[in-house]
Structures are given as structure tokens and as C-alpha cells.
Amino acid sequence: MNLASATQVKALLAKYGVRPKKRLGQNFLVDRNVLTRILDAADLTAESNVLEIGPGLGIVTVEAAARAGRVVCVELDRSLEPILKEALSGCDNVEVIIQDFLKLDLAGLLEGSGRWTVVANLPYYITTPIITKLIGSKRYFDAMLLMVQREVAARLRAEANNDVYGAISVFVQYHCEIESIMTVSRNVFYPVPEVDSELIMLRVRSSPPVAVSDESLLFSIVRAAFGKRRKTLLNALSSSEELKWDKHEAQVVLGAAGIDAGRRAETLSLAEFAALANAAI
């Protein structure tokens, strides 16, 4: 079975009576060169543990199993289970879990098994929740190799004063170093999606790039600031139900951090958000 062939993938789907589900963002990789780049970037060894999110038809899973010691893949779509069983019939080191990844108990699955590498092709509609969950369990991971839409990749690595800079940019950059591996044409997927993708690597930082006394408070401030990004910081922070600051409290914190209350969230660097959080303690 050649899963890197669009013709054979179509035949395989027809054999099992499965149609790609647009609502789940199902676009299956059918290119051998991109597959090789993914596996090379993952840098797997016989000691590697791999967590794959959204294995689809198993094209990456089969190759990962040949390089890694253990592969656990989590697939939401139960209709793909028989296809995965066929594709992975010779892979004794692969476990397939049919479940919503966002409902999965990661600690229960990964605890006591060493460090893991994540490999995932993330649908646009659920990219942020999945990345947030992964980073929330970052203690288990060395790196996360993610296929995302190009606009998502741009948002993740955006810096202050960029139109696409937002709360997820600050969150990811605080926890991870971001590396672009390659731009991926929409034409290497079946069905062909409407936009191109980008393969990115998130490497978990050993320590954050800025020092904060209260991480929870930092991200409460970030969410409040970007939640009303068209408002000034004074108005955005003082109207946050999460922070529960009045205008005087917000003004005091901004002043203590040396930040103009009339600025907007997209102008603040990660270091300035950290200064705000530390000034609020």
C-alpha cells in the first residue's frame, strides 16, 4: 500500500466507504518528499516515544514506527480505524486510540514513559486548543512537530506591532522556541485544501525567556489585554472579568511597570507583559 499516492489513497477510502470530512479538516498527506522531511525533522531514534495527533490514514505513523521505539496515535474519526488497522498491521510498537484528543488524559497516558516527541497535522478549527493542551503538559515533551496553516504559523511567531500578534503568540513564545521547517504546498494533500501549510517545530524551553512571579497572572493579563485589543490597555484591563481591576488599580499597575496606559495590547512585547505581571504582585 502506497499512502503517498493520491490514486491509491482514493482507492483505499473507496474500499472502506469513507469520504474525507471537511468539518474535521481532513486533508491527507500524499507526498513522499514532504513525508521524508517530516520524519527527518522529528529526528527519531529507537529510544524515541512519539505521540501523533490525527494520524489520518497512517502515512506518518508507519514511517515513525519504523524509526521510533513506541508510537501512540490519537484519532477522532472512528471511521478511519479499520484503515489504520490495515496500514499498521505490521507495526507492533503502535497503539491507536480513537478519542477526542482534547478529552484525553495525557498524564495518565504519558506518565512514567520518559520524554515524548509530538507529531501532528492540526486542523485550523482546533489548532489553538490542541497547542494549549500540549503546552499545559509540556513536562512530558521535548519537541512538538506541527503541520499548521501558514497563517497560524505566522501568528505563533509574530512579535509586537504585528497585526497577527496575539495572546497565542505570547503564550507559545513564553513556553517554546519556534522554528519553521518548511512551507508545504496545498497540492501535496488529498483533498486539496484552500490554503498552504507550514511545518513548524516547537521546542520546549528549559526556562522561560522572561522572569515572572506568577505565570497564571501573566496570562490573565495577556488574555484581558488581547480580549479587547482595540481598546487601550487601561480600558481593556479595567473591564476584564478575569482580573476584576477597576481603572485606578489598572492605572497603578501600568504606572509601576512603566507602560503608557494609552497603548494597546499588540504593542507590548513579552518582556513588557512580564513587567506588568510582576508590577501587579
Key descriptive features of the protein:
281 residues; Helicase, Ruva Protein, domain 3; 7-stranded mixed beta sheet; 12 helices; 39% helix
Structural account:
The structure is a single chain. By secondary structure, this protein is of the alpha/beta class. The chain folds into two domains: 6-204, 3-Layer(aba) Sandwich (Rossmann fold), CATH 3.40.50.150; 215-279, rRNA adenine dimethylase, C-terminal domain (Helicase, Ruva Protein, domain 3, Orthogonal Bundle), CATH 1.10.8.100. Helices cover 39% and strands 19% of the residues. It has twelve helices and nine strands. The chain has helices spanning 6-15, 32-42, 59-67, 81-87, 106-110, 127-136, 150-157, 167-175, 215-227, 233-238, 247-257, 270-279; strands at residues 28-29, 49-53, 70-75, 94-98, 116-121, 141-149, 176-184, 189-190, 197-204. The strands form two sheets. Strands 4-3-2-5-6-9-7 form a seven-stranded mixed beta sheet, with helices on both faces. Strands 1-8 form a two-stranded antiparallel ribbon. Helix 6 links the parallel strand 5 and strand 6. Helix 9 (215-227) crosses helix 12 (270-279). The protein is elongated, with a radius of gyration of 21 Å. The chain starts with 5 loop residues before the first helix and ends with a helix. The model has no long low-confidence stretch (mean pLDDT 97).
